[in-house]
Amino acid sequence: AxxxxxAEHSSGLYTDSSxxxxxxxxxxxxxxxxxxxxxxxxxxTFQSCEFNLLVFNEFICNRMSTVEFVExxxxxxxxxxxxxxxxxxxxxxxxxxxxxLLTLDRSNGYVVNSEISYSQNYWPxxxxxxxIRDVDQSIDFSNCVIKENEGGGLKVxxxxxxxxxxxxxxxxxFGGIKxxxxxxxxxxxxxxxxxxxxxxxxxxxxxxxxxxxxxxxNNEPGGCKVDFGQMDIxxxxxxxxxxxxxSGAVDATYCNVQGGYPGTGxxxxxxxxxxxxxxxYYLSSTxxxxxxxxxx
Length: 296
Fold this sequence. Notes:
By secondary structure, the chain is an all-beta fold. The chain has no helices and 37 strands. It has strands at 2-3, 13-15, 18-22, 25-27, 36-38, 43-47, 50-52, 60-63, 66-70, 73-75, 79-82, 85-89, 92-96, 102-105, 108-112, 115-119, 130-133, 139-142, 145-147, 154-157, 160-164, 167-169, 177-180, 184-188, 191-193, 201-204, 207-212, 215-217, 222-226, 229-234, 237-239, 244-247, 250-253, 256-257, 273-276, 279-283, 294-295. A 12-stranded parallel β-sheet has the order 1-3-6-9-12-15-18-21-24-27-30-33, with no helix packed on it. Strand 35 and strand 36 (279-283) form a beta hairpin. The radius of gyration is 20 Å and the shape is elongated.
C-alpha cells in the first residue's frame, strides 16, 4: 500500500503486479508516457485519490488488468479502461477537453454512484462524458449523474449496457444518450432532461434501446428518436420536448406522451411535476396513473 502524494512524474506510474494507493495525489507529467499504465494481470486499487493530469495528451490506460477506483477525483484526467475489469464507485470525473472523460473499451465491471461532468468539446468528436464500445458483457451503470458535457452525455457503440437510477442533464453535442451499432441498452428509472442538439435518447445504426420507468423531458430537438434500429418504451413520461416527443419506429406502451402516441395504455395528461428534495421532476400524488409521490 502507498500513502501520500505522487506528483510530477516524467514517466508516470507503471505496474504489472498488485498495488493499493490511499489518499494519493497524481499530478501532471510531461506527456511522453501515459501517467498511469496498468499492465497485464495487475490488480490495482485507488482509494480517495486525486488525479490532476493536465498535459494535453495525457490519459489513464488499463490493459488486461483489474482496477478499482473508490472515492476518487479526476480533474482533467480522461480515463481509458481497455480490455480490463473495472470497478468504479463514488468517484467524480470532470473538466477535460480532449478525450471522453471515461472510455470503457472491451471492458467489464461497473460504474456506480459517480458523477461525469463538464467535458468540453474543443475538438471534433470529443467533449463526451462517457463512451462505451465493443463491450459484450453488460456493464452496470447505476446511480450516476452525467451532466453538462459539450460533446454529449453517454455514447454506446457495439456494446451491452444497463443504465439504472441515473440522471442526465444539460448535455449538448449528441444530447443525453446515443446508442449505435450492434448495441443493446436498457434504461430504467432514469431522468433525462434539458439536453441540447441531439435530444434525450437516440438510436442509430441498428442499435436497440429499452426504456422503462423513466422521465424524458425538456430536451432539444426532441425526446426519443430512432434513425435506424429499435426502441421500446414502457411506463415512462415523455413530455415538453422541443420539436417532437417521439420520432421514428418506436414501440411505446403505458406511457404518458405529450400530444399522445399510438400504443397500448398510452395517455396524454399533464404529469403535474412537483419539486422535491432532489429536483423538479417528482410526481404529485394527484398525477394521472400514480397514487403516491415518487421521484422520476
